[in-house]
Structure prediction request, 224 residues.
Amino acid sequence: MAPAQARLTLFDLDHTLLHGDSDVLWCEFLMDEGVLERRDFAARNVDMEARYRSGTVGVEEFARFYVGTLTGRTAADWEPLRRRFLREIVAPRIPRDATRLVDDHLEAGDLVVMTTATNHFITELTAQHFGIAHLLATLPELAGGRFTGGVTGTLNMREGKVTRLHAWLQQRGQSLADFHSTAYSDSINDLPLLEAVQAPVAVDPDPRLGGIARERGWKVLHLS
Prediction:
């Protein structure tokens, strides 16, 4: 009997494993803390979320808007707020079924990866909270140890998620063909990723992705 093929499982984060969007919640958190000025930022945050959900926002515009919230401080400066954000805002919004789903794949021995458009600094602790060791996320730029508000490398969004995945696997001496691959996402923005794997799963999908999932006979899962 041939050995079972290794399994690769990819999880989007926002509105998939998390009830809400990390970027939007981070901004709300910073406004509540007085770090961002609500009168200047709230409407822009709502607009950016709406255009992301509809799949109409530009990749660069989206990434730079949210990474820009980190500008001027070091990772150490942000650390106390980052940990409070996980504890007070993110963790309570993780559905139990989402935790069980991740645990099932980890316990089965899958290579589990969180892949998110939200930046690496904000989502690193969330991946650790799930017990996910591998995180692909948009990378904020640092200069002199401080966040510049810019980004570096391929943005981990839309087709960029597939590009980053292939590059990461190549660094490990592997390829997507080495695995039986599964991806979970809620968003039309992740259509390229879902089309790249063997087992796409739409999780509480937005209307556009839900329609495609039904047309193509993809599995639809509800975790929220």
